[in-house]
Amino acid sequence: MSRDAISAMLERIEQDNVRFLRLQFTDLLGLPKNVAIPAGQAEKALTGGIGFDGSSIEGFVRIEESDMVLRPDPSTYTLLPWQSRECAEARFVCDIYKANGMPFEGDPRYVLRKAMDDAAKDGYVFNTGPELEFFLFRMLEGRPTTQFQDVGGYFDLAPTDLAEDVRREIVLALTEMGFEIEASHHEVAESQHEIDFKYSDALHTADNVITFKFAAKTMALMRGLHVSFMAKPIYGICGSGMHTNCSLAKDGKNAFYDPNAPLQLSKTCMHFIGGLLRHAPAITRLANPTINSYKRLVPGYEAPCYVSWSASNRSVLVRVPAPRGNSTRVEFRSPDPTCNPYLAFAAMLAAGMEGIREEIEPPTGVNRNIYHMTSAERERDGIGMLPGDLAEAHRALLADDLICKALGPHVVEALTNVTEAEWDAYRTMVHPWELDRYLATY
After folding, report:
1. Considering the chain, what percentage of its residues have pLDDT values greater than 70?
2. R_g of the chain computed on alpha carbons
């Protein structure tokens, strides 16, 4: 960062009357972390970064190599709108460096940057536009519950209540933080909502996903409610997804659009889909990173279970929405909002780029409701299944050289440690379902 740019940034911080700066980053799980510094330390942060102990962060490093540095990305500066303007706070999203000045290979933001730099070698910019769903639950004695705040349904215009108020306040806060909100509405399940914001390049979008979740939780808590991005908090109703629209741009034009091709989808688009489908099992580990994620990926609730694509069918993994021209895109439907967006987007891009470079043709699109097909019909049409649980998904990841290479050995090793610990804790726990099922019978 040049001296002039630093001076301009410091002047802006002073004009905004900022008293504290939050230096934000994410751990391997995609959970936001931050170090708060007084505004007087801004020049130090922008010039050389702020040191911190990386050994205490999930998936980072061992204690004997723990010294790390946060370097703010000036383009991510924004005021936190819920704080008083008399004592304003602002935040930067940061990149993480090692003490020797090299980028930290376990920084999820760095992983995505690498994938995007690789695509840029072929002239492509990767754009993503996620649709985050979430539940608004009541709090009881300061703890979240699964009690609904409203009983509305899809696109319902409910009477004004706390849920409506909170959704509106989230939209207003995000708008103040620079988001271009495209739509907000009630989702299918009770107390379930969705807010969509304009697509951008994948790195900017991943930053926005983390900011979105942080802002939504903050605004809800101020109203005494809890926003949950858990994939399937309640049995028997729809879970929350993060359908991700994605496209490639080249020379300022949408590389997925070809007015003369079948369905007006270019070869680039078709090959990108082919790559996504080839590597879908491994991507699932990143797009659906919790044990609970796989309670959502079951038939009957609009979440994908099968490796397939279509121009319209919503039971498939990859759907191509109707708009064409500059709006041509593919919708990857498996991710849920618990994912680390940096890692999920990096895996999707790596898979799509291999599809383009190796000219991988996708199978025939599926126009039937796959949930109504028999297993024999699915086998005949070459429709495979996504992994059914976290352990299976992680095995698929480890078996996929391309996705492992995109993540790097540090991230793969750290994810393996997390998965083994999580799976063992889950596998050995006695669940209430087991007691209800077996205690009185045996």
Report:
1. 94
2. 22
